[in-house]
Design goal:
The structure is a single chain. This protein is an alpha+beta fold. It has a single domain, classed as Glutaredoxin. The protein is globular, with a radius of gyration of 17 Å.
């Protein structure tokens, strides 16, 4: 018997642990196979909502926000790179020197959800930033990602130029903040069960199987 599962994946496209968590979640769902009928929704969360359009040097940003020394940053980068390699995601650390505002990326993801291409766009955006080192606040980068995801680039350009879905994205962000979500990824199953962080696939699989059995 196939069990329907609603999954809200609260995340940011500039969050490396979100890329790792997504790959792990997808592996878990593949392992579960036909026993589950997942309905996956990507929900917006901005790690840096006040970031200006020019972005900020990553080293400077991490030192200011977390007090991380250059040595600590190097250790974290290597841990993220290794975890990414384990789940099949490439972090090209030498290509990514700045962190950017991601609000327009979330607007585009909202639109992609209405078009049935949200997951494809999410992957394209994560790859654009973490693998290619591109600027996820650039409309040209976002339009290319939309095209890669099978969306109409002209329609994507129109969404970005119009400011459409800004209110919807802010409403969703505020909703999850009110629910106590303060870090990502936050994976919410059936609107009740929370799995936090870029967990290994086995953790997601075990949690999903338990939730399916209980339902």
């Amino acid at each position: 018997m196939t069990t329907p599962i609603k999954i809200d994946f609260v995340s940011d496209v500039s969050c490396p642990w979100c890329a790792i968590g997504l790959k792990s979640l997808e592996t878990a769902l593949a392992n579960i196979g036909a026993d589950a009928a997942p309905e996956l929704h990507f929900q917006p969360f901005e790690l840096n909502p006040t970031m200006g359009p020019e972005g900020q040097d990553i080293g400077e940003h991490l030192a200011q926000k977390y007090g991380a020394s250059p040595e600590q940053q190097a250790q974290t980068r290597e841990m993220i790179r290794a975890r990414g390699a384990e789940v099949g995601f490439t972090f090209a650390m030498d290509k990514r020197g700045r962190i950017y505002n991601t609000f327009d990326a979330h607007r585009l993801l909202h639109w992609a959800g209405l078009e049935g291409r949200q997951s494809a766009l999410k992957h394209a955006l994560l790859s654009a930033y973490f693998t290619e080192g591109e600027n996820p606040s650039s409309h040209e980068v976002l339009v290319r990602a939309a095209s890669t995801a099978g969306l109409d680039p002209d329609a994507a350009r129109q969404v970005l130029a119009s400011g459409e879905y800004a209110d919807a994205v802010r409403e969703r962000e505020q909703f999850y903040q009110r629910q106590g979500i303060s870090s990502v990824p936050a994976v919410i199953i059936n609107e009740r069960h929370l799995i936090s962080g870029g967990q290994p696939a086995e953790v997601f699989e075990q949690a999903l199987r338990q939730i399916m059995a209980e339902s």
